[in-house]
Amino acid sequence: MINLERQGDVYVLTMDAGENRWNTNFARAFDARLDEVLASDGGAALVTTSANPKFFSNGLDIDWRRGEGDGDGGDKLVFGEEFMALMGKLITFPVPTICAVNGHGFGAGFMLALCHDVRLMRADRGFLCANEIQIGLSIPDAELALFRHKMSASAFLTPYSWPIAGPGPTPSPPVSFMRSPLKRSFCPWR
User: Fold this and answer.
1) pLDDT tens digits for 124-180?
2) Phi and psi of 38, rounded to 5°?
3) 8 Å CB contact between 185 and 120
4) How confident is the model over 56-71, as a mean pLDDT?
5) What is the edge-to-edge ordering of all strands in the sheet holding 55-57?
6) Domains and CATH numbers, the chain
7) Of all helices (H) and strands (E), which one includes residue 83?
8) Which residues are CB-contacts of 31 (< 8 A; sequence separation ≥ 6)?
């Protein structure tokens, strides 16, 4: 689900659960890998990416959230609190963090990218957006606080600042996102 590999002083955390949708078990697995990095000796940096070339993270596991009982995703009652604690842990992580966004990052996936020190994004693929309103969900206060902390209101509310998924044509990520303060750079991907 979440793989961690050390290459010298750099840890590469790879999400490998299909579309990497967030539920309690996914958040706990991610958190356990961060604990491994924290327990390491010597200098380190963390690079987060996805094994899925289309989706960096497709956000909240909506089927799990709307389904009966806790299902395979784990305890629904603790998800919000544990997820936001994980985002707080990452945003204050004591080693440099780099997010290599290799596909779409929606909702919780967008939040994950924002919690890193540096974000790199493919030049040829991917959208980052908070699509909760478009799919009929409200944006929790804690998530709005993260957005306010990491980006200006004009960047969040102005459509040309970052690609928005939705009906109709969407702007090309390299053209639209290049004006955004969120990205660090676009890069070719192999």
Assistant:
1) 778 888 777 677 777 778 777 777 777 777 666 654 334 444 444 444 443 334 345
2) -60, -30
3) yes
4) 94
5) 55-57, 104-106, 128-129
6) 2-187 (3.90.226.10)
7) helix 79-91
8) 82, 86, 89
